[in-house]
Specification:
single chain, 316 residues, alpha/beta, Nucleotidyltransferase, domain 5, 57% helix
C-alpha cells in the first residue's frame, strides 16, 4: 500500500473523507508535512475528525469503566437497566435491559434525553444488533394507577431483566434498586449519562415507548400522542380539555384532577399565592400558610403544592 504522501489529493479524499478509513496521529503528521495546498485543506478537516473520534473514545472508555472492571473479573453478562415514561400523563411506563459481549463499544451511545429521535432510532438498531441480550418490560396504565408510578417503573424494570435470554450475572441500574431479582446490582445516580450499558438501555426503552405512543395516537386520535408522547405539553393539556380523559390516561396523576378543576377552591387559591411569590420571604410565608391549611386539603393537593413549592425555591 502506498504511503499517504504518495497519494494524489483525490485518493486521499476518497480514502479518508469518503471512505472514512481509520486515522492515526502518524497519518495526520505525514499529511501536515505535505506542502500541497489541497492536502493542507484536507488535513485540517481530518484533524477535526480525528479529535472528535479521540474524544469519543475517551468518553466511551469512561462510560464503560464499571463494566470493564466486571469483565476483567470474569463476569461476562452485565445488564444495564433503565426506564422511560415516568412523567407523562398517559401511556405505559417502559423499561429495557441490555447486555453486551465484553469490550463492546458503540459510538454515540449516551443518555437518550440528549439524543434527537433519528439518532436514537439509528443507535437502537445498532444496540440490538450488537447486544448479547435485549428485553423490554412494561407496566400498564392500570398498574400505574394501582401501585403508583414509582413502583410501576420498578415492576417494568424487573420484567425487563426477567425477559433477557439468560439471567445476567450483574445488573447496573439508573438511580434505584430493582426488587425481586437475585443477582448483584449497583445503582448509579444519573446512570444513563455516565454508564454505557444503562445509556444503551435508556435508548431502547425510549424508542420502544415512543413506538407504543405512536400506536396509541392511531387508536386515540386527537390527543397528539405521536408528538408529545403523553408528556404534559400545552398541546396535550388543550386536547385533554377538549376531549376529556382517554382510557390510556393515568387517572391517579394529580395533574389531571388539577387540570379539570377537580381540586378544592383552597388548593387553587394557594397555587395562585405560590406563583405570585416573588421573594424568598413570600415563599416562606406560603409554606407557613400551606402548613396551616394541610388539614383542609387532600393528600394529593398537599403533595402537588409541595412539589410546586420546591420548584419555585429554585428560581426565586
Amino acid at each position: 500500500m502506498p504511503r499517504v504522501e504518495e497519494l494524489s489529493i483525490d485518493e486521499i479524499r476518497k480514502r479518508y473523507v469518503e471512505g472514512k478509513q481509520p486515522l492515526s496521529q502518524q497519518v495526520l503528521n505525514r499529511l501536515q508535512r505535505d506542502k500541497r495546498q489541497g492536502v493542507q485543506r484536507l488535513c485540517e478537516a481530518l484533524r477535526k475528525r480525528f479529535e472528535r473520534e479521540r474524544d469519543e473514545r475517551v468518553r466511551l472508555d469512561a462510560m464503560r469503566h464499571f463494566e470493564r472492571v466486571l469483565w476483567k473479573s470474569g463476569i461476562r453478562d452485565i445488564a444495564g437497566v433503565d426506564e422511560a415514561g415516568v412523567a407523562p400523563l398517559a401511556g405505559p411506563v417502559v423499561a429495557a435491559a441490555v447486555m453486551f459481549p465484553p469490550e463492546t463499544a458503540i459510538e454515540g451511545v449516551d443518555d437518550s434525553k440528549k439524543l434527537d429521535p433519528p439518532t436514537r432510532e439509528a443507535l437502537a438498531i445498532e444496540i440490538r444488533a450488537r447486544a448479547s441480550g435485549v428485553a423490554v418490560g412494561i407496566a400498564t396504565v392500570a398498574e400505574i394507577d394501582t401501585v403508583n408510578i414509582y413502583h410501576a417503573s420498578l415492576l417494568a424494570m424487573r420484567r425487563a431483566v426477567e425477559g433477557l435470554p439468560r439471567a445476567p450475572q450483574h445488573v447496573l441500574v439508573d438511580a434505584r434498586t430493582v426488587p425481586g431479582i437475585a443477582m448483584p446490582q449497583n445503582a448509579f445516580n444519573k446512570g444513563d449519562g455516565i454508564n454505557f450499558s444503562i445509556a444503551a438501555a435508556s435508548i431502547i426503552a425510549k424508542t420502544a415507548r415512543d413506538a407504543m405512543m405512536e400506536a396509541l395516537d392511531r387508536e386515540y386520535p386527537g390527543y397528539g400522542f405521536a408528538g408529545h408522547k403523553g408528556y404534559p405539553t400545552p398541546e396535550h393539556r388543550e386536547a385533554l380539555l377538549k376531549l376529556g380523559r382517554s382510557p390510556v390516561h393515568r387517572t391517579s396523576f394529580p395533574a389531571l384532577d388539577e387540570l379539570f378543576g377537580e381540586f378544592s377552591p383552597r388548593f387553587y387559591a394557594l397555587k395562585e399565592q405560590l406563583f405570585a411569590a416573588a421573594t424568598r420571604e413570600a415563599l416562606a410565608a406560603f409554606e407557613a400558610e400551606l402548613k396551616s391549611a394541610a388539614d383542609a386539603l387532600s393528600e394529593r393537593e398537599c403533595g402537588k403544592l409541595r412539589i410546586l413549592a420546591r420548584r419555585r425555591w429554585k428560581v426565586v
